[in-house]
Amino acid sequence: MLYTRLMQQLFPGQEPALKPSQHAPLAAQLAPTSFDAYIGQSHLIGPGKPLRNAIERDTLMSLILWGPPGVGKTALARLMARHSKAVWIPLNAVMSKVQELRDAIKKASENQKMGKKTVLFIDEIHRFNKAQQDALLPDVEKGTVVLIGATTENPFFAVNGSILSRCQVYELYPLSHDEIDALITQSISHPQLAVLRTMPDELRNGVRQHSQGDGRRLVNLLELLATAVRNGQELSDDTLNALLQRKGTLYREDEHYDIISAFIKSVRGSDANAALYWLARMIRGGEDPKFIARRLLILASEDIGNADPNALSVAVNGMQAVQFIGWPEARITLSQVTVYLAEAPKSNREYKAINHALAHVDAGNVQAVPVHLRSQVRPKDPNKSDVAYVYTHDNPNTEQSFWDGDIQFLTP
Question: Block means of pLDDT (10 residues each) for the chain, length 412 residues?
Fold first, then answer.
């Protein structure tokens, strides 16, 4: 059967039937084989959604599935393969070589001559270099292949623009609280996890939290916990914590930008608690403390300015301290600076003023420095009146012009 061959190709190591081999990893055994069993991504494959309709009608066009690990990209590819009459050619960009890519394109070209549609599924497509990605372009353009890529990295940075322009990008999100809970219920129905069916609510909540929206991580954690219980451990929080050891967090490259953005916007919005949460996420994710300190330094001028001039001093001192001490003690300094800036009065008056002035200059308003303000003595211009600079400290009440403009860059 076509589906049998597809499963052998797409998911090596599994039995090709709808029920995977008992020797396959549990996460593979629990992979959904229908839309009803698929948990999450309802914004893409809920009833009546365009992507689901395209899959069910076998009218897929080239697309990129983008999302963090364990949110169902490969499972969604499995559903696409199940509903497709096309020839599927799977590649993994981590392991595939240029020759394998050429062979796939050659096979697709032969299929096209026979009137067959070919879908080229490339997992981790961001791992292909620019030349490999460019090699796909002519055949995607001509329709030799329908390209379906899966990636954990932001495709707008990691995939060539020429490929992106020919693909629809679908973003998959981490599983929600309720979705993870549904996946726990679904998973513990498997015989290998039967010992977890009496899991206390507190332990269930701990498992849910530590999965961090990652379905594969959840199943692996349940499998570890079930093995520990079968080996005589208690079904308890202590057993879970012993298995976890260090409670790190997922922190992908694109999350680096999203989380620092949430952090800065929380400080700007004067929500110290939210800012501390995002700071903790960055700390546990292994972010560079100097990067965080630099962003706080910028914020002190951009969003606080002279509403609290001391904010800049606090941020500068905090950055210097962070450079001296590093992790883990830098967390204390960053917390102090974060809370101070979050609770400080906010103003972007100076930020807007310099941007206004720069825009004025960029518009071509470049004037000569008035004679009385210049740094050097020049011969007197007979066509101009002799205007002398008045030393302000000696004559504080004397009015004089410092430029020829009349625009107010600073708001009152």
Answer: 42 40 72 89 91 89 90 88 85 80 87 87 87 83 88 86 88 91 92 91 88 88 90 87 66 70 91 91 84 92 91 93 86 94 92 86 77 63 60 71 71 74
pTM of structure: 0.61
Asked if 322 and 215 sit in the same domain, the reply is: no
In total, how many domains does the chain have? 3
Q: What pLDDT shows up at residue 20?
A: 53
Q: What is the pLDDT of residue 78?
A: 84
Res 4: pLDDT:
40
The answer to whether the CB of 184 falls within 8 A of the CB of 222 is yes
Q: Which of 89, 95, 65, 75 lies closest to 34, judged by CA? A: 75
Both 143 and 289 in one domain: the answer is no
Domain that holds residue 296: 253-343
Q: Would 236 be classed as within a structural domain? A: yes
* φ, ψ at 114 (rounded to 5°): -95, 5
Based on the fold, state whether residues 215 and 282 are members of the same structural domain: no
| AA identity, residue 26 | L
Q: Identify whether the C-beta of residue 239 lies closer than 8 Å to the C-beta of residue 233.
A: yes
> Does one domain contain both 200 and 275?
no
Per-residue H/E/C for the chain = CHHHHHHHHHCCCCCCCCCCCCCCCHHHHCCCCCCCCCCCCHHHHCCCCHHHHHHHCCCCCCEEEECCCCCCHHHHHHHHHHHCCCEEEEEECCCCCHHHHHHHHHHHHHHHHCCCCEEEEEECHHHCCHHHHHHHHHHHHHCCCEEEEEECCCHHHHCCHHHHCCCEEEECCCCCHHHHHHHHHHHCCCHHHHHHCCCCHHHHHHHHHHHCCCHHHHHHHHHHHHHHHHCCCCCCHHHHHHHHCCCCCCCCHHHHHHHHHHHHHHHHCCCHHHHHHHHHHHHHCCCCHHHHHHHHHHHHHHHHHHHCCHHHHHHHHHHHHHHHHCCCCHHHHHHHHHHHHHHCCCCCHHHHHHHHHHHHHHCCCCCCCCHHHCCCCCCCCCCCCCCCCCCCCCCCCCCCCCCCCCCCCCCC
Last residue of a domain, one of 286, 319, 343: 343
Say which CATH number the domain at 315 has.
1.20.272.10
